[in-house]
Amino acid sequence: MQTIMLMNAKGGCGKSTLATNLATWYADEGFKVALADHDPQGSTLDWLEARQDYEGIPEIAAIDAVNGPARAPRGTDYLIMDVPASIHGKDINAHLRRVDTMIMPVLPSPLDIRACKRYLKELSKNNRIARGQLRVGVVANRVRENTRAFHELEAFLNGLEIPFLGKLRESQNYIRAAETGLGIFELAPSQVYADVVQWDAIIDWLNEQ
Ligand SMILES: Nc1ncnc2c1ncn2[C@@H]1O[C@H](COP(=O)(O)OP(=O)(O)OP(=O)(O)O)[C@@H](O)[C@H]1O
Ligand SMILES: [Mg+2]
């Protein structure tokens, strides 16, 4: 089983959006996927509940990791963990204990860049990250090309020692998918093409191991 965690100390950067869409990508490929919600807000569990309204879409197992252990059902291929913002100190180590891969979404804003810089410094103290037992990558999210804010983010992410996996554009498709319990990969292909292609680089990196 591969365990992938979406993490960033900053709120609203797209952790849950990436978690739910990644879960659907693997589920649509035929893998057995479990999605663990560590956030007391429970928005990922709400999304999973909305998903139950559909027939004929792949099932994703729900794990309420706030009220119980984040244990995936037997036979799970991918466990995706969505954690809340502001995980610091010892909680970082506890969350990363069984994680194979961590992806950090970052928004194009000076505040988010500064917060990301600080958080990466904090994360580098984690033993598993320091020993290279855990892969870490960053993704630029809610990108509007040709904006100064994005160019600044791109320059910052390109300058990091950890891989910059790719960018996801600002798109209403993510908001629509979040409301309906679907992933963007499950919406009408003609509507989501420009979003879907942006995932290729992220998925390629995930499949590299
Ligand atoms: N690429 C995108 N395009 C448009 N909207 C997006 C995109 N990514 C995320 N959003 C929207 O931004 C908001 C915050 O995203 P999300 O809930 O995924 O962030 P989060 O990091 O999980 O937040 P929190 O820290 O509160 O858990 C949501 O309304 C989501 O639909
Ligand atoms: Mg969230």
How are the secondary structure elements laid out?
Layout lengths: L1 E5 L8 H14 L4 E5 L5 H9 L8 E5 L13 E5 L7 H7 L4 E6 L3 H14 L3 H4 L4 E9 L4 H11 L5 E6 L2 H9 L8 H8 L3 H8 L2
Parallel strand pairs: 1-4, 1-5, 2-3, 2-4, 5-6, 6-7
Brief rundown of the structure:
With about 210 residues, the chain is of the alpha/beta class. It has nine helices and seven strands.
Structure, described:
By secondary structure, the chain is an alpha/beta fold. It has helices at 15-28, 43-51, 90-96, 110-123, 127-130, 148-158, 172-180, 189-196, 200-207, and strands at residues 2-6, 33-37, 60-64, 78-82, 101-106, 135-143, 164-169. It has a single domain (2-202), classed as Rossmann fold. The chain is globular. Strands 3-2-4-1-5-6-7 form a 7-stranded parallel sheet, with helices on both faces. It binds adenosine-5'-triphosphate (ATP) and magnesium ion. Adenosine-5'-triphosphate (ATP) is lined by residues 11-17, 39, 84-85, 141-142, 168, 170-171, 174-175, 178.
List key phrases describing it.
single chain; 209 residues; alpha/beta; globular; binds adenosine-5'-triphosphate; binds magnesium ion
DSSP strand count? 7
**Alpha-carbon Rg, integer:** 16 Å
Please list the strands of the largest sheet in the order they lie side by side. Answer: 3-2-4-1-5-6-7
CATH fold-level name? Rossmann fold
Query: How far apart are the first and last residues' alpha carbons, in Å?
Result: 12 Å
| Low confidence ranges | none
Give the name of the CATH architecture: 3-Layer(aba) Sandwich
CATH class: Alpha Beta
Helix content: 40-55%
Secondary-structure element series: EHEHEEHEHHEHEHHH
Mean pLDDT: 97
Question: What is the overall silhouette?
Answer: globular
Question: How big a fraction of the residues is strand?
Answer: 15-25%
Structural class: alpha/beta
What small molecules accompany the polymer chains?
adenosine-5'-triphosphate, magnesium ion
Q: Counting H and I runs of at least 4 residues, what is the number of helices?
A: 9
